[in-house]
Amino acid sequence: MTRVLRYTLLTLLLIAGLAGVLIYSLTWRPDAKETLQVACTAKAPTLLAGQALKVMTWNVQYLAGKRYVFWNDLARGDDVGPTAEDMAFSLDEVARVIRDEQPDLVLLQELDDGAKASDYQNQLKLLQERLADLYPCSTAAFDWKADFVPEPPIYGSVGRQLATLSRYQIEHAERLQLPVPAANLISRQFQPKNALLVSYLPLSDGGQLAVLNTHLDRVIAPDDSVSAQVAAIGNVLDRYESRGTPWLIGGDFNLLPLGQYQRLPKEQRTPYSADSALHLLWDKYPMIPTNNEASGIDRAHWLTHYPNDPGLNGPDRTVDYLFYSPRIKRVEATVRQDDTLRISDHLPVIARFLLPAAP
Q1: Interior CA angle at 95 toward 94 and 97, to 5°?
Q2: What is the pTM of this model?
Q3: Residue 260 and residue 253: Cα distance in Å, rounded?
Q4: Handedness of CA 174, 127, 131, 101 (dihedral sign)
Q5: Tens digit of pLDDT for each residue in 295-311?
Q6: Least confident of 219-228, 247-256, 342-351
Q7: Distances (CA, A) of 157 to 22, 81, 100, 109, 184
Q8: What kind of architecture, by CATH, is found in domain 31-354?
Q9: Domain boundaries defined on the chain
Q10: Is there a contact between 177 and 38 (Cβ–Cβ < 8 Å)?
């Protein structure tokens, strides 16, 4: 080996090593299971066995509102971030809807913290300031985080959170990592890392309620990663069920119910599959909305997603759900549509349940 060639190889190895160190320092590698901080600003009551419980799940789209078509939307627009004015408006509107509904538990997806696109806001903190009197307890977990993403539409930091607000005491919380979609070693470091945010609420009879919050990303084309993530969620729920622990999960699953795939125009079907991976959950556990509701005669009432697409003038699909243990009884449920169409590209799903009575 000549001296020049040896020098060139050493230089390349040095550059590769420096690049690896830089990538490692800029990105985030969460553990498979992490204990989270629970914040309680006041003494919160304990859930009573057998009581009614009102729950809302809502992807608030980092408070961006509906005046944009973003670069990562299915319609592939040019927008990279909302204005401060639009985020302020959406923040007030999200707070208004939550305060009007006053659910006992609020499961939120896509709240930014430290992201360039949303002007580095801590959006959970901003929302808590408006709702502190209703929700003394909260916990949150990142599902996308990096100090710098070298992709031109982003070209800066990302920080996206799941957050759960509770009127009742949260005993402890944890983050459970879901399977990560396949990608090359470098790009994988900068991608979202979907997870479950699990909050454990003590019950007056000595038991506990497990409340799970999640957000699954929309894939570019159907692949095995979605099924792997839903299967992993199912395994977690199966463990709670086998222990006799009542549970419920809400979030943006980015998957269609039975029958909606065929109703979408062909150009809107791209991210989905006719055989929805969500069947791994609905085959075993009750779902809100049910398949009959989401694809029946009144299906328009159960649409939860209004994509950022100039060709659409309203919600056209259901991708947000609540699943719950058969030990819990559904009392009523709805999707709040009338006054939420301009707040986010998702609509809040709201349900009232009865918790299991004490043994």
Answers
A1: 65
A2: 0.93
A3: 14
A4: negative
A5: 999 999 999 999 999 99
A6: 219-228
A7: 14, 13, 34, 18, 20
A8: 4-Layer Sandwich (3.60)
A9: 1-30, 31-354
A10: no
